[in-house]
Amino acid sequence: MRSSTRPSRLLSIDIDLENSRLGFRGKWLPLSVKRSERTTFGLTVNPDQEVILRVPLTAGDESIDRFLDRKENWISRQLTHFEQFQPKTPERRYISGETHYYLGKPYRLRINHCPRWAIKPGRYFIVIETPRPDRSDLIREHFQAWLKEQSHEVFNEIHSRLEHEFSGKLGYWLPEPNIRHYRSIWAQYDSQAGTYTLNYRLVQASVASIEYVILHEVCHRKYPVHNKRFYNLLDTFMPDRVQRKMELEKMMV
Ligand SMILES: [Zn+2]
User: Fold this and answer.
1) What is the pLDDT of residues 162-186, one digit of tens each?
2) 3-state secondary structure (DSSP) of residue 52
């Protein structure tokens, strides 16, 4: 097995060779594998986000998997680059009526002018009490701080539950999550330290998606890279992992 000193990220693309497609941020994109008389692998991403892989006639699935695994960061960067030309969701403005997700459920924000800051989740609304209803930058800051605070409790609870279910099967205690902010990834595994870190914004995703991310990261202690054995292990524990991941990507776009 390739030893990895760089931290491995949560896979940002799903490779589905069987159906010639690639999952990226909640969408399936076409993946064409073209065989020809050549000795090397070649990879192209089109502006319409089609991924084309050129391989020698003799290339087996295992070597194609390994190649795509190595190129995952590159493919993800290309897709992200071309994505800026695709339709986009608007920036968050932190005003009354705007929808924000918490634990996979949509809530409307309600901004109330009050002497003190407070954040109160209800059934359909998240009420933000603020002395500065005109300052959406401060509202954003307070709301993010609140999410971060909630994330500790939520992640620890899910972690304990997964530990109970899977630590026996894995043969080790699951490492506890560190929590921080990342701009563009959900989680990161540090193979040298054997620990992992979650993006606190994951608390906006459904419990099913959070479970997927945590299980994914803790399975890296057994297999640090995204190889076939890693995915086989994940599939055994969580047969619907692709759906859970797609759901996550769709929500967080
Ligand atoms: Zn991973």
Assistant:
1) 999 999 999 999 999 999 998 777 8
2) strand
Q: How far is the CA of 225 from the centre of ligand 1 (A)?
A: 7
What was the pLDDT predicted at 64?
A: 87
DSSP symbol at 201: G
Closest to 143 in 3D by CA, of 194, 81, 98, 193: 98
Under CATH, to which class is 134-252 assigned?
A: alpha beta
Cα 76 to ligand 1 centre (Å): 14
Amino acid at residue number 119: I
Ligand 1 centre and the CA of 40: distance in Å? 26
CA of 224 from ligand 1 middle (Å) equals: 8
The reported pLDDT for the residue numbered 252 is 59
CA of 12 to the centre of ligand 1 (A): 9
Q: In this structure, which amino acid lies at residue 220?
A: H
Tokens coding 23: 């999952």
Expressed in angstroms and rounded, the spacing between residue 30 Cα and the centre of ligand 1 is: 22
Cα 29 to averaged position of ligand 1 atoms, centre (Å): 20
Kindly report the pTM of this predicted structure. Answer: 0.71
Q: Where in the chain is the domain with CATH 3.30.2010.10?
A: 134-252
Cα of 223 vs centre of ligand 1, distance in Å, is 9
- Whole-number Å distance, alpha carbon 90 to ligand 1 midpoint, is 29
Cα–Cα distances in Å, from 66 out to 46, 49, 159?
A: 22, 21, 30
Token digits for 225? 């890279």
For residue range 117-153, what is the model confidence (pLDDT) as tens digits? 999 999 999 999 999 999 999 999 999 999 999 999 9
